[in-house]
Amino acid sequence: MTTIYINHPMFDEMLSHSKPPKVPKRLQAIIDKGFCIVDGCIFLKALYEARPGLATCSSDRTGREGYLNGIEVDMFCNRNYYSNALAYSKLIAEKWREDFPERQGTLAIYIYPTEDCGYHVTLCSLRNDEPQWLEVSDNNFPFIAITV
C-alpha cells in the first residue's frame, strides 16, 4: 500500500476540481471557534473546551493533539463521509493559515477510514523531536496526510 502525502497547494488544487459539499453546521461551528494553545499543544478550541481532560491522555504533545482533535465525520453527517472529511479538512487548513500565517508548514491534517465505513479527521503539529501521528511506515493503514 502506498501512502500519499499532500501539501496545502496540492490539496487546494485537488479540491478546486470538485465541489466539496457544504460542511454541516456542527462541523463549521468547531472551525469557527478557532484554535487554542495549551502547554505547547495546538487544539481546536471547541473540542478542547468540550473535553479538556483528554489534553493529558498521552505522554507526548503530538499524541495529545492527535487524540483530542480527532472527530469521526459520520457523527456529523449521514452521507458523503469522504467528501465531508475533505471539506472539513479544507476549512481547518484555511483557518490555520488565517490564524497562524507565520506557522505555515507546521501542521498536519490526517484523514483515514474508520471500521464502520466513515472517516476520521485529526490534526497535530509537525515536530522534529516526536514521532508523527501516523508515519509513512504505517503502510498497511490507509490515510492522507495534508501539511498546512
Number of helices: 5
Strand order of the largest sheet: 1-7-5-6-4
Distance between the termini: 24 Å
Q: Total strand count, please?
A: 7
List low-confidence stretches: none
Largest beta-sheet characterization: 5 strands, mixed
**Total of domains:** 1
Radius of gyration: 14 Å
Roughly what fraction of the amino acids lie in strands?
15-25%
Shape descriptor reads globular
Helical proportion, percent range: 25-40%
H-E order? EHHEEHHEHEEE
Mean pLDDT: 82
The assigned structural class equals alpha+beta
Question: Can you describe what's shown?
Answer:
With 148 residues, this protein is an alpha+beta fold. It has one domain (4-147). It is 34% helix and 22% strand. The protein is built from 5 helices and 7 strands. The chain has helices at residues 8-16, 25-32, 45-50, 61-68, 81-99, and strands at 4-7, 35-38, 41-44, 71-72, 107-113, 119-125, 144-147. Strands 1-7-5-6-4 form a 5-stranded mixed beta sheet. The protein has a two-stranded antiparallel sheet with strand order 2-3. A hairpin with a 5-residue loop joins strand 5 (107-113) and strand 6. The chain is globular.
